User: What shape does this take?
Amino acid sequence: MPGGVKSPAASERAAAIKQRLAAGLAKVDPYHRLQGRPVRYDVTAGQTLEITFRDVPSIGEAEVNGVKRLLGGKSFCAVSPQSRERIIVRFVVPLE
Assistant: This one.
């Protein structure tokens, strides 16, 4: 995970989120829309974790809500086109 986390607590929360996603994604993503896709974790402004899944064929509300439950607390999701056949799914989580 890139540097830039301002506090040890935020760093620990980012690591815990990454671990929860790795452990629980299979359960909340039964159609494997997110599993196995390129994923990137970025810390912005030292206090927000941005999780970006690329090359996603489609996403349903159930999968989005399942990931949000795994992330815990407040989180936001944005879906944007990558190409005609693929989308980018981005989750943003405050770390503090």
Notes: The chain is about 35% helix and 30% strand. The mean pLDDT is 91. Residues 1 and 41 are 6 Å apart (CA to CA). The chain has one domain: 8-94.
